[in-house]
Amino acid sequence: MFEIGRLFSHKPDHPMNSVAAARDLLNALDESKPAAALSEIAGWANSLAGTDGFACDDRFLIVAEIEANGNRVAATVFQDYLRHIHMRDQEQRTLYESLHGYWSAVVGAYERCILDHQAGAAAAARFTSHLALAIARAIRASEHAERMSQLRYIGSGAELWESPCRLFTYAEKMEVDQLAIVVHEHEVHSNIRAELLCMAGMSLAALHELPPEQVELAGRILGRFAVSFSWSTEPLPDCNFVLDLAAGAAPRQRRPDESASPTKRYFGGGPALPKLAEIVGLVEMDLLADEARFGKEFSQAQIVSVIHHLLIYLGSSPPQRRFERNAVTAAVPIIHGFAAIAPRVTTLDAGSNAKLDDDLNIEQRKQSGVQLAAEAPDSEPEVWTIRDRSEWGVGVEVPQRMGAWAEPGVLCAVRIDETSPWWVGIIRRVEASEFGRVRCGLWIMSKRPIATHLRAIGSETNKASNWETSSGGFKYTYLRALLLPDGVKAHERPVMLIERKAIWIGEIYEIMAGEHTRHVRLTELIEEGADYMRVGFSWMTLAAT
To answer: Does domain 326-446 have CATH number 2.40.10?
Structure first.
């Protein structure tokens, strides 16, 4: 029913003092330059949050109108950002700032609605029906702001968690934290706790170790499965993480002797973890439905890589640093990519009088000149600076105007000194500052890698030698590979790197190394990187045909 009192109420001194006025101003925006338009929309949200005199429900409806228009423009800007995601230049920075600024402004605008409700401002009672939705949208926007910082590898400020913790505390007080709501039109039901847990998962999952596309994929996966996380006000066994609402700080791993507190909330992967593992199984059997793939831009290998990562970092025993790091300062050459690495490490060629045993040790009796293909390095090394080292890790600083290719998941090799071999590793961590300084953490996978080629044999029932072409010949598929004799095994099986191509788990390959033929079966896709796939394999003995 229309309230007589509202007929004589004064409108606040703001251009967007009604939904209709907001709609007119938003429709008048020039969207030919989406990033600039999004920044202007963020300006309206900030202005609305800072203006007094709005009734609670009116402010909420206007903020919702701003967000509806902003989300549409943000989707366009974000697609531009994804297309530019591998560059660290001014254009990427501009796109990032417009997106991060927008989501931060949305947080502030919705939080002002909630603060007014807490203070008993005008129309607080009418706004109560919107309260859960406003809190959920504010926390969702906080998660999007954090995701943008993760995508740029600049980290999230300590203040990021102050608002979500404050909002969730109020949601619990008002008993709406588990109320089923549709946060945005055409979405499935969620609740405030699930939105908070999605953000917590993003914070805990070491996303600085993932390539940028996979950071975005991780956010989408967590958005779907965070609702299944465990949750408790007590430190239960399956709740190995803790969030202190009073501290307003990021969640952390629970200490073994963690004591309960009225402001602490405990959570863990819980039922979500087996559900994620089930997705991996469906992908490996090529049974994952299109609508369940989190977006057509992601490959099945990327889905597997990200879920493996989430299972590790959100599981009951997240990784801990195993080796002490020692400070050191030295200039080192570094290269990246299969094409640059393969010619510089030990190479086994077809026809050489070498034998490869099950532990990837080489027995070489004499050198042969037979090679599968002659290769030359396709790029010169860059010289970076080591800042610290451990047994299997190297921390480096990237000089200005170098390392434009450096991001998590990139295959690289480093040489500690002129007499040492090239070590093969993966960039596992990137930390970038707003001042342009970039530091990387390298995981060294092998200090004595072996470069070779694989030839696809097919399966035991469908060998490639049976695939006769119309010309009467046979067409084989060849892959470059890096064997890792001293690498960490996967489920007690050896691991190798192969160049990124379409493969099928269970396929059999012949290792083109020496005159002693060896066959392997690919048993597990562990990770997909920029130009490689890390796979587990087992040795095969094929029956003669």
So the answer is: yes
